[in-house]
Amino acid sequence: MHAKLLCLSALALSLSACSSLAPTYERPAAPVPAAWPTGAAYAAPTAAAVAAADVPWQSFILDARLRSVIDQALSNSRNLRETIASIESARAQYRVQRAAELPTIDAGVSGSSARSLSSTNGHANTSTVSHSYTADVGLSAYEIDLFGRVRSLTEAALETYLSTEEAARSTRISLIAETATAWLTLAADRNRLAISQKTLDAAKRSMDLTRRRMEAGVDSRVDVRSAETIYQQARSDIASTATAIAQDRNALELLVGAPVADTLLPDELPPTEHWLAEVPAGLSSEVLLRRPDVLEAEHQLKSANANIGSARAAFFPKLSLTATGGVASAALSTLVSGGASVWTLAPSLSLPIFDGGANRANLAYAKAQQKLYVATYELAVQTAFKEVADALAARGTMAEQLAAQKDLVAAAADSSELSTLRYEKGVDTFLTALTSQRTLYSAQLTRVTTQLAALSNQVTLYKALGGGLATGS
User: Interior CA angle at 44 toward 290 and 398, to 5°?
Assistant: First the structure.
């Protein structure tokens, strides 16, 4: 009995091992140049010994405090937990669909008793009681996948599951980049607050000096009011920057998913210390194909490709098999030892004749979805190329911008100091000194903005090149 059932199952599985009707998958050609753009705005491309995707984020982030904050974010982020839950759901759905490729074998024991009318030995209206007991093992309505319909559905579910895994990797990289950027933004705003405070103190001294000179009859009230303008501007900037710092911390803690200790927060942007490692870009744009968002789009395309196979298979006959085998007996006590062998075999074949065009519509929908995901994949590649190209363009001129801002601050500081000395000695007007102070204040704030832009661009380039995917990341 069991041998026959095993043979039937093996036969059903062998019949199911057919070719899928899904189109042969070919990755679309990347609709971007093979190399990064070059020109005056771009840094000269160089061959890289290692791709950014192979650089663990712990090697990219050089500051120990920021590494601790990112570790905390990866452990606590609700966005990441939500994405991981989506992976688990997709994995379970794939396992459910994969199970449909195998026959479901059930075992059962049943019994029945019945009193029925009988007429024996000339006695009318007599009844007898009968008993029957059955123990069997069998499979029910198992679809023999002659044309690969079930297998195509399984492949589609697998690709959907794999796409959610890539989405999680993309979320992880984004979380690392967003946390680093939020931490750097907090450092920059604390830098701005310190600059505004120093400007406020200097403006207060200038204000006091002009008041004394006005009382001595040297300066006018116009000079006093002029000195007060930069003081009040710095005062306003301190208030608004304090608000920004509080909001920066709130944004950082939302990303981290928990409070961040004061000891892990930056004081200000460092003038010379390197917080981030250089990002290797390499020569070829082929590295974009390793980006998780690009891989996610490709898995979605593969899933749509497999769905075409399922839609095509719906036009062909569908073969199902129900089979059982076991023993039966009139007495429960003899079911195992003396029962009679029983079995059933019920194949079923159905062929679609008229469905109102539903199968054709399903096939047209599957093909349209496949075209949609081809466009989605190509757009993902193009978007990735643009992000990297933009970051490389910024990197190409960032060193010059930083050097220019550094020299501008030095020149403005020297000019402010000289103008103030000339004013105090009565050689020059206060307007010249005031203009120099404003120029210095603006140059210092702009330098912080440029520093933040340079650091943020490093983070953006690392993320755009798929950084953070290496083992141990």
Answer: 90
